[in-house]
Amino acid sequence: MLDGDAGDYFALLKPRVMSLVVFTAFVGMLLAPGEIHPVLGFLAIVCIAVGAGASGALNMWYDADIDVLMGRTAKRPVPAGKVSAETTLAFGLFLSVFSVGVLGLTVNWLSAGLLAFTIFFYAVIYTMWLKRSTPHNIVIGGAAGAFPPIIGWACVTNSISIESIVLFSIIFLWTPAHFWALALFKSADYGRAGVPMLPNVSGERATKHQIVLYAVLTAISGVVPTLMGFAGIVYGIVAAALGVAFIWYSVKTWQMPDGDEKMIPAKKLFGYSLLYLFGVFTALAVDGLVAKFFGVVA
């Protein structure tokens, strides 16, 4: 008999991460040229969500030993003893096979293959290898969270294009500044768990330099859709404004004295980074809807 209740299994899916995956994949589908039947589009989003949840479950299975040592993860179902590691592994593997198989059989096998690779990348390359072996874990591992727009695009077009790679790049370049801001004020947690996050290995000052660098790169990547012509000028203005604010928050974090116990600027940057990504992809979604329904690029 399975252990845990429905709420515990839902928590294994990392629903907050899943919601971001679903949203960015939907935007990829929306911006892709061509059409997909609404039923197939909905089914594709469900499969992508389930695949993301499978990645989360496999991550929690493998990381249970370090999750128990960190305040923000100690209450997860596995370290809290609500769901066994064995059940979590089986749950994650079942959802992985199910999501990839259904997506391939109903939509296309390119999108299914990309989903399978994303699950593998997050669960094996990032979780089992990079996370515990290099302070650049989140730079390389961030690719896993950046694939959903490409998968969404492939669901519609059965192809990968430069436009979908640009969407990938926005998330990929955003990830380090987002997670290193978190690592600055959670460095004690990572230290206890032995995870070599950049602040623990190279120090706060080096981390702040990298945060500013990646914030600038993210801001630049955010306006590329307009420069390439697959998003309009209104989107470009919104993305530029959001990017300038992202850089401003990163500079405030850079100016924060080393050893600051409150870490207020880093916490504000972390919070704003979520708003930035949501804002950019919302603006892209609006631009895509206007283009599809009115035949113009906003």
Molecular structure report:
- The chain has 298 residues and is mainly α.
- It contains 15 helices and no strands.
- It folds into 2 domains: 1-160, Tetracycline Repressor, domain 2 (Orthogonal Bundle); 172-298.
- It has helices at residues 6-12, 15-31, 38-62, 64-67, 85-106, 109-129, 137-141, 143-146, 148-157, 162-185, 187-193, 198-202, 204-228, 233-255, 264-294.
- Helix 2 (15-31) packs across helix 9 (148-157) and helix 3 (38-62) packs parallel to helix 6 (109-129).
- The chain is flat, with a radius of gyration of 19 Å.
- The mean pLDDT is 94.
- Keywords: Cell membrane, Heme biosynthesis, Membrane, Transferase, Transmembrane, Transmembrane helix.
- Its EC number is 2.5.1.141.
- It is found in: Cell membrane.
- The chain crosses the membrane at residues 17-34, 40-62, 83-103, 109-130, 137-160, 166-185, 230-249, 269-294.
Please name the defining characteristics of this protein:
2 domains, single chain, mainly alpha, 298 residues, 15 helices, Tetracycline Repressor, domain 2, flat
Portion in helices: over 70%
What's the helix count? 15
Number of domains: 2
Extract low-pLDDT stretches.
none
CATH topology of the largest domain: Tetracycline Repressor, domain 2
- Radius of gyration (Å): 19 Å
Number of strands: 0
Question: What CATH architecture of the largest domain would you give?
Answer: Orthogonal Bundle
Structural class: mainly alpha
How far do the termini sit from each other? 54 Å
Major sheet summary line: none
User: Overall mean pLDDT score?
Assistant: 94
Strand content: under 5%
Basic shape: flat
Report the order of strands and helices. Answer: HHHHHHHHHHHHHHH
Assign the CATH superfamily of the largest domain: UbiA prenyltransferase
